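Re: the request from the purification team.
They wanted to know what the chain is likely to look like in 3D before they choose a buffer screen. I agreed to run a prediction and write the result into the notebook, where they can find it.
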Amino acid sequence: MELRLLELGSNKLRAISGLDKLVRLEQLWLGRNKITSFGAGLAALKQLKKLSIQSNRLTDIGQGLTHCTALEELYISHNGLTSVKGLEALRALRVLDIGTNRITSLDGLQPLTKLDELWVCLTTRAVHTPHTALHPLTLSCHVMSCHM
């Protein structure tokens, strides 16, 4: 199928499925649903460049994005993520929004050398960021209680 953009926001979806024939899909909008995991739902989307899955119920990225190696923009804020593990394979990623999650460390983002926009607010005071991580980025947090 030739579909390039699919908007499925605010549909009370609980799982990602039925996308395996959309191999040319470049943009997928899944915000404001009730999705709890990626599962294998994105495995066929090797040309996906932009994914918005904000405001869902994700707690773990796992291997769900492993096949999305063309992904350039990922908006995954307002979930329950506790780490960035699972993003290492996304070497084409330029924009990453992981704000308003439960992330306490940016360890694991080092391989993302093309990343030039990072939206983040680490939610606890006990934050560990490796000294070699993210040298070309300027990190800022616009929430008063965020201390790095």
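For the purification team: Residues 140-148 have pLDDT under 50 and may be disordered.
Please add any questions underneath this entry.
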